[in-house]
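Recap from last week: sequence in, structure out.
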Amino acid sequence: MDYLLELFSGIFFQPRQTMERLAREQPLGSSVLLYLIIALLNSVVSLAFWDPSRLGLPSNLSREFLNALPRFMSYGVILSLIFALFTFLIMGAVFHLVAELMGGRGSVISLLSALGFASLPSLLNVPVTVIVGFTGLPIGGLLTFLFAVWVIVLQVFAVQAVYKLTTGKSVLVVLTPFIALTIALIFALTFFFIIIGSDLMELAPIFNNFPTL
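Predicted structure tokens:
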């Protein structure tokens, strides 16, 4: 327990040195467990304060939905854990691949050992969600964004510690998934609008034959 508390405090007060220690000592089990616990707590709290009325269901369907909600919530928690483990492993694999392509040399075990602890600021979303749920204060989005930036900074430190890359290259490694997703989304939207545009062009003669008022 003292070991973990020392690592937790190090993440907040000495992040670079702590990431180097995690890369060296490789506490993989603790890292994965921490990541899953944080995902579980965030999922449970978010579901607990979720308002089904936002769906705008009719009253009879809303009642049936509320009766089935506990079962849906249990499924949601299980799926969130599976998804969290999947994304954690994929994130580690992508970071490792990109870091090695940039000339870094390190162990994916060391990386995963550091990345789990890098998610620690996400735990602060739990009390924020509870406070926002009870008070309605419009601070949840801003604080969640700040915690996400904090996690990204810690991930950059983790990549630096494991692969001995420069800060610029480490930032690029961490941002690569976001850049790739953005490019993929742009291509998908462009393709979608091209298809829709061509379909509308084919329908144009039909609309032109409509009588005008």
